[in-house]
Amino acid sequence: MRLAHRRLMVINTDYIRDGAINVKELFKLIDLNDDVEVVLKKIPGRLKEFFTVLADSREPEIKIGRHCSNPYDCAFADYCWRTSRLFHLRHHAPFLA
Ligand code: SF4
């Protein structure tokens, strides 16, 4: 689908109500056409990267860290953190491991 305009409607923080709300001044539209065009041009290259990763049978060599739970919990955490948990269990409670 081809869109004529890509705009984002946001609250106009400069708006000061004086009497009835003036909806046309309360909101403002930000034109995102240029930003969207930049992102659209990058999509084919990113998709190619994604498919290359998916086709590789080897796991990516990424170390576990804060990025595993920030900004959100990763769905693969149980798998990736298993050796770390085993290490801590063996180190702190060897009688359990
Ligand atoms: S838990 Fe998720 S973010 Fe962390 S290393 Fe594994 S795949 Fe990457």
Layout of SSEs?
Blueprint: E1 7-11, H1 23-26, E2 27-31, H2 33-55, H3 77-80, H4 82-92
Antiparallel strand pairs: 1-2
The protein binds iron/sulfur cluster.
Structural notes for this entry:
With 97 residues, the chain is mainly α. The protein folds into two domains: 1-58, no CATH class; 61-97, no CATH class. It has helices at 23-26, 33-55, 77-80, 82-92; strands at 7-11, 27-31. It has a two-stranded antiparallel sheet with strand order 1-2. It is elongated, with a radius of gyration of 24 Å. The site of iron/sulfur cluster has 8 residues, from α3. Iron/sulfur cluster is lined by residues 62, 64, 67-68, 74, 76-77, 80.
Cα-atom radius of gyration: 24 Å
The number of helices is 4
Order of SSEs: EHEHHH
Bound molecules: iron/sulfur cluster
Largest sheet: 2 strands, antiparallel
What is the number of E strands? 2
Low-confidence stretches: none
Q: Alpha-carbon distance between the termini?
A: 57 Å
Roughly what percent helix?
40-55%
Protein structure class: mainly alpha
The gross shape turns out to be elongated
Mean pLDDT over the full residue set: 89
Sheet with the most strands: spatial strand order: 1-2
Estimate nothing, just give the exact number of structural domains.
2
- Taken as a percent bin, the fraction of beta residues is 5-15%
Key terms for this structure?
97 residues, mainly alpha, two-stranded antiparallel ribbon, 2 strands, 43% helix, elongated, binds iron/sulfur cluster
